[in-house]
Specification:
The protein has about 400 residues and is an alpha+beta fold. About 35% of the residues lie in helices and about 25% in strands. It is built from eleven helices and 16 strands. Bound molecules: glyoxylic acid (GLV) and manganese (II) ion (MN) (2 copies). The site of glyoxylic acid has 3 residues, from loops.
């Protein structure tokens, strides 16, 4: 039994109690429980002697500067928002582990300054567009994002003000020029490590990701009096299209395409649906395959709508290219895992991560921990104590290796 590993798991489970929905873990961008998460993590950071700030997009950031440090800093972190009905570890584990790595750096008297960032938004659940937190840190926050609105009609800008922050200061959230690299610790969220009986993986590449919103617009009408051949049923069109999306992705190697959300209007049992708004999420390691898939699926939606006499509208919300991780930092992680006695496999990530945005600005790397049952984005998501312990040992080796480099 390792005390620190148990503490990490207990911390994640405790943070999971800070939720918008009693009985389920749901914590969207700058929702009320984020104040509690900040308060808790702030206490932990202050106890470690870190200086703590919340930037204008709601990222909680703690900086540890040892007395003997040079100007450069290592950045560690992950996100604290969740999907609806989430597990306790996606994102949060990377923040809690980052604080443990700071503790290790302190114990070992390493001359490395470390900034830990708890990113406010990665999932894209509240506003449809992910990475609001890391975009600001990477200097890629387009002010147009402030005008996105959520299901209640609240704009990003209003949500930031309501949290007590000033959206005019987002440009100041950019990472310090002396930041030399970013490392994110995360659960794998898939079955591969478990199937190989391995606790750890090192990510070599994060697949590209597109997200779209698609709306079929037909005519709401009486379910009893409108003959079947005179209907313009938006939901029936959507259903036909969803089946086509699944078929297309199944026939194209390595492609993942998901319709995860649908909003039907007026959503009544005795009314023909007049509108159906759907999300589309498309991923592939090769950008051209992903882009071709998006074009094909939009064109399929157009032809279904045209045949049924419906209108179609779509918005491209995200087009994030596949991103390689930094070779040098990745090699350090692989070596550190080897030396620590937990040889890690290198692997691509099918999930999106803050590291893919940070990588556009800084060398970035990721350490994965096995996901028992391959389960994630689900309350049953978990992590093994032995893997947390292994990741702590890897941290000790990795940080020592970095500290030995002249630029630190
Ligand atoms: C984030 O969890 C994503 O990959 O959707
Ligand atoms: Mn997630
Ligand atoms: Mn995540």
């Amino acid at each position: 039994m390792n005390d620190r590993a148990q503490h990490v798991i207990a911390e994640c489970r405790h943070l999971a109690t800070m939720t918008e929905e009693p009985g389920r873990i749901t914590r969207r961008f700058l929702s009320r429980p984020v104040h509690d998460v900040h308060a808790h993590l702030r206490r932990r950071m202050v106890a470690l002697g870190m200086d703590v700030v919340v930037d204008a997009v709601g990222n909680l950031r703690g900086l540890w500067v040892p007395p003997n440090a040079g100007p450069q800093r290592l950045v560690l972190g992950s996100h604290i928002d969740t999907v609806p009905d989430a597990g306790a570890f996606d994102g949060v584990l990377g923040v809690v582990m980052a604080l443990e790595w700071v503790r290790i750096a302190q114990q070992d008297l390493l001359p490395i300054a470390i900034e830990v960032i708890a990113f406010s938004e990665e999932e894209g659940v509240r506003f449809g567009v992910p990475f609001l937190g890391s975009r600001a840190v990477a200097g890629r926050f387009d002010p147009a994002l402030l005008t996105l609105n959520d299901a209640q009609g609240i704009f990003v800008e209003q949500s930031i003000r309501a949290f007590g922050l000033d959206p005019n200061l987002i440009a100041e959230a950019q990472i310090h020029p002396d930041a030399l690299g970013f490392v994110e610790i995360h659960i794998e969220q898939g079955p591969i490590l478990e199937s190989e009986r391995r606790g750890l993986g090192v990510v070599n590449r994060i697949v590209g990701q597109s997200r779209l919103s698609i709306e079929f617009v037909g005519q709401a009408n009486h379910a009893g009096t409108t003959p079947m051949n005179m209907r313009r049923d938006a939901l029936a069109a959507a259903a036909e299209w969803i089946a086509a999306v699944e078929k297309y992705a199944t026939q194209n190697e390595g492609l993942a395409a998901t319709v995860g959300r649908i909003i039907v209007e007026p959503n009544a049992g005795n009314v023909i649906p007049g509108k159906a708004r759907l999300s589309l999420d498309v991923r592939h390691a090769l950008d051209r395959v992903r882009e071709e898939a998006v074009d094909q699926l939009v064109s399929k939606a157009n032809s279904i709508a045209a045949r049924r006499g419906l209108a179609l509208a779509f918005t491209r919300q995200l087009n994030e290219p596949a991103v390689p991780m930094d070779e040098r930092l990745t090699a350090y992680l692989v070596d550190a895992a080897e030396v620590a006695g937990f040889p890690a496999r290198t692997m691509p990530s099918g999930a999106g991560h803050d590291a893919m945005v940070m990588a556009t600005r800084l060398p970035a790397a990721m350490l994965f921990l096995r996901s028992p049952g391959g389960i994630s984005h689900h309350p049953a998501e978990s992590v093994l104590e032995e893997d947390v312990e292994a990741a702590l040992h890897v941290g000790r080796q990795f940080l020592a290796r970095l500290a030995a480099q002249s630029q630190f």
